[in-house]
């Protein structure tokens, strides 16, 4: 393991402990339906690498914020992510039966409960974030605005719609990137931005560089995801049937070849790292996270 990879693993582990405790707090209050609450907890607390909350914490650190202010936004991005995975796995979408090595939420519970759990997690993300009085009200409003944009039709949901419309079609590289910038990139970008917004008075230039980092990393995440789908263990433990292969989705390796996709990944990583050049050691976790995202094996 390289030093950068060890730093990322250690950072992810520290983040996981802090963020999971916050997720527990946020999901501990009883709701009217015990079954719904169980499905929500099952979907959020049952694994996951916590890449987005870790990026949120790493961006906050790069911007000078290491306190607990960042936990609510980190938790909110993970709740949105969990909701998106539940809905993405539904029969009407990817129709997957396994996620994180265990039954997807609609298999473990039922389809209606899974839809409601996703809906409820999305609402909870905004409630948890907007109700966090550790963060100044104006910054919280900016975060809610950012997260709503990244989650909805301007971002993730819009990307998912393009994805569904593109099944069986040949996309150009530009079209593929548009889809991924929305579908997965927008939430990764929001994770970084929300983290930075927890710090007071971050210069515009630093925010711009963090945005460039997040955009490159969002695409790199997807290129590596596509490579893992054909080369790695995602096919074994992740989503074996009914999804990408069967639906003939456009992918980077299909468009560029495996070697071309790897080159593209290296270029995106270089661009992400270059955008952090003006930051000092406080951005080391962000640097390590970029290396981790492109080197991850699941
Ligand atoms: C259905 C509204 C709606 C949106 C779905 C993001 C998304 C849009 C679907 C996810 C489907 C998917 C598997 C996309 C590939 C990239 C991705 C988001 C992988 C899963 O993210 P990880 O690897 O997952 O961070 P863990 O399990 O570690 O949290």
From TrEMBL:
The keyword tRNA-binding does not apply. Keywords: Isoprene biosynthesis, Magnesium, Metal-binding, Transferase. Belongs to the FPP/GGPP synthase family. Its cofactor is Mg(2+). The keyword Magnesium applies. It comes from the Bacteria. This is Polyprenyl synthetase family protein.
């Amino acid at each position: 393991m390289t030093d950068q990879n060890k730093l990322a693993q250690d950072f992810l582990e520290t983040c996981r402990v802090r963020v999971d405790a916050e997720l527990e707090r946020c999901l501990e209050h009883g709701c009217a339906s015990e079954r719904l609450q169980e499905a929500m907890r099952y979907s959020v607390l049952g694994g996951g690498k916590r890449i987005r909350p870790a990026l949120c914490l790493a961006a906050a650190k790069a911007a000078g914020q290491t306190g607990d202010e960042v936990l609510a936004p980190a938790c909110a991005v993970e709740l949105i992510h969990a909701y998106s995975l539940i809905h993405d796995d539904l029969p009407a979408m990817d129709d997957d039966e396994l996620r994180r090595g265990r039954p997807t939420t609609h298999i473990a519970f039922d389809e209606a409960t899974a839809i409601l759990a996703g809906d409820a997690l999305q609402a909870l993300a905004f409630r948890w974030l907007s109700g966090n009085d550790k963060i100044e009200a104006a910054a919280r409003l900016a975060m809610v605005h950012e997260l709503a944009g990244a989650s909805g039709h301007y971002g993730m949901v819009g990307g998912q719609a393009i994805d569904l419309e593109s099944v069986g079609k040949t996309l150009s590289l530009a079209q593929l990137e548009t889809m991924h910038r929305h579908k997965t990139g927008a939430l990764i970008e929001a994770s970084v931005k929300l983290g930075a917004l927890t710090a007071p008075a971050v210069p515009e230039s630093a925010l711009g560089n963090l945005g460039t980092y997040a955009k490159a990393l969002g695409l790199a995440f997807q290129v590596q995801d596509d490579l893992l789908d054909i080369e790695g263990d995602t096919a074994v433990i992740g989503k074996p049937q009914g999804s990408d292969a069967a639906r003939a989705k456009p992918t980077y390796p299909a468009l560029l070849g495996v070697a071309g996709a790897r080159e593209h990944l290296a270029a995106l990583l270089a661009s992400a790292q270059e955008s952090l050049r003006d930051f000092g050691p406080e951005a080391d976790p962000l640097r390590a996270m970029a290396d981790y995202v492109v080197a991850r094996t699941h």
